[in-house]
Amino acid sequence: MTFDAIGIAGSALTVHRKWLDAISDNIANVNTASATDGDAFQERYVIARANTRDGGVNVAGTALGSAEGRLAYDPANPLADEDGLVRMPDIDLSAQMSNLIMAQRGYEANAAVVDRAKSTYEAALQIGRS
Questions:
Q1: What is the pTM of this model?
Q2: What H or E segment, with its residue span, contains residue 100?
Q3: In the chain, how many domains are there?
Q4: What does the radius of gyration of the chain's CA atoms come to, in whole angstroms?
Q5: d(Cα 42, Cα 22) in Å, to the nearest integer?
Q6: pLDDT tens digit at each of 130 positions of the chain
Q7: Alpha-carbon distance 1 to 101, whole Å?
Q8: CB contact at 8 A, 34 and 67
Q9: How far is CA 117 from each of CA 10, 19, 44, 62, 87, rounded to the nearest angstrom?
Q10: What range does the domain containing 107 cover?
């Protein structure tokens, strides 16, 4: 049972780490401009799924947001077209920050589960030695 808890929480740690990576990438590129004839930076989403065989979760893949983005007036940008427009990603920074907090808290909770399961296993070993 203890090893199951460690495995399940460990799988969730991996999913939360991938989610944190995607959010960090989205936040880092929130102001990345592109030429109007190209695609905007596409927001990344992590797709998680339950692992029914072993328990826990795993990353099933990633999905990308819209490449259309939004047009912004920035005539000083070297990528601006003749009208002074650039293509910006359509990323909501406040939503990304909320997701960042949720992913961080999920990661911390699963790390605590691993730590407590480890402590339980060590206590059981001590009882066995006595």
A1: 0.86
A2: helix 93-129
A3: 1
A4: 21
A5: 11
A6: 556 888 899 999 999 999 999 999 999 999 999 999 999 999 999 999 999 888 899 999 999 999 999 999 999 999 999 999 999 999 999 999 999 999 999 999 999 999 998 888 888 888 877 7
A7: 30
A8: no
A9: 11, 24, 33, 30, 49
A10: 2-129
